Amino acid sequence: MQASRITTIGATTTTLLLGLTACGGGGGGGEANAWVLNGGVWPVVEEDFEAWNEENPDQAITVDSFANDVYKERIRTAVGSGEAPTLIVGWTGGTLLEYVEHDYVVDLTESTEDLRERLIDSVVANGEVDGSTYAVPMNNVQPVVMYVNQAVFDEVGVDVPTDWDEMLEAVEAFNDADIVPFALAGGSRWPMLMWASYLTDRIGGPEAFDAVVAGEPDAWSHPAIIEALERVQELLDAEAFDPNFSSVVADQNEDAQMLADGRAAMVLQGSWVYSRMLEDVPDFAASGDLAFTTFPEIPGGAGDPANIVGNPANFWSVSADASEEDQQAGIDYLSEHLFNDESVDAMLETGNIPPLEGLEEKIADTEDEEFLGFAYDMVRDAPSFQLSWDQAVDPSQEQPLLENLESVFLGQITPEEFAENMNATQPE
């Protein structure tokens, strides 16, 4: 499949309009609050809170903004100590299971029924535990896609790869031309998961990792996971990544910057990077050289090439430690205001896709129709949309997973040692 090409970009830079509160939680009551991330679609989310506050001054919700990795470090401590914000951003998976098991979040099944009827079922399902809803999607669908600098491909005379063999041929050609084949933000570690998860799915289908999530003994030793990491080693041996990848950081969009500068030919990243490129490198985006495609096929693999990995969306949960008044403010915001017409239009204008049914006409009217339509079709048509591994596993496994995967990428352990180490972390 050839990469789709962006021909026109309508970038809209959004200004952060809300003041930040001190980092207190919702447990004390008296003022509902929310923690959000920065960059990408998050300024739209903050503006949506401003609109809510203007319309509902008696239920105003204040906002704190954090970088991705900083947020992940702080939120677990805040939730466990009873100092969580009223509205908690999450990625569902193992973390949501932990929240529900410890009664950290409230049941939203009845209060969000009308909202959920408007949303894509496969996305909504990620917020359910034992048939009840404890989290609802709150922003854009986030499949992982392969971004391409088409000008670099044209210069070297290489076609965008559609399968494993073509990808290795492209790696060799770019190295010969002194261009990094793939930018990789190894300093943030979690971008490495995108490679491991896509390769595992292409080789063994979603069942391979589903066994890990289900807690099956020795699930990390599944042949598909072992082979996926062997192929990672093959890429490393072929010098597919920047030799300094371990110092590149995703929070600063450094991997995408390498793509825009022409220092790298490709980058495997989430769809949220598109909106960040609209803001950070608008000239590159507008040049028509930014292209995108799906992850290459693995010949003979059991996984459907239409399967995707990433984050179905970020999700809102409501803290059970917030006061009843603050909880109600949060619930009313979710049930009455989330995904209103203005916020949906603002998301689309900034290159982000809400998880709503029937967006085809709205997407067709945007200046970014090519990318938005591409990503929307990926989500709508995917037989499987697998949640990012670090969010899907039990929270106790997140750090060991990132550490062991980093060790594989650095050549410090073998795939078999990775599996042995991770099997030892499986919850009883």
What does the model show?
With 428 residues, the chain is an alpha+beta fold. The protein folds into two domains: 32-141 and 313-357, Periplasmic binding protein-like II (D-Maltodextrin-Binding Protein, domain 2), CATH 3.40.190.10; 142-309 and 387-423, D-Maltodextrin-Binding Protein, domain 2, CATH 3.40.190. The chain is built from 20 helices and 14 strands. The strands form four sheets. Strands 1, 8, 9, 10, 11, 12 and 14 form a seven-stranded mixed beta sheet that branches. A three-stranded antiparallel beta sheet has the order 4-13-7, covered by helices on one side. β2 (32-37), α1 and β3 form a beta-alpha-beta unit. It starts with a strand and ends in a 5-residue tail after the last helix.
Quick overview of this protein structure:
It is built from 20 helices and 14 strands. The relative contact order is 0.20.
Number of helices: 20
> What's the alpha carbon Rg, rounded to whole Å?
21 Å
Strand content: 5-15%
The count of domains is: 2
Specify the CATH architecture of the largest domain: 3-Layer(aba) Sandwich
CATH topology of the largest domain: D-Maltodextrin-Binding Protein, domain 2
Share of helix, binned: 40-55%
CATH homology superfamily name of the largest domain? Periplasmic binding protein-like II
Name of the top-level CATH class of the largest domain: Alpha Beta
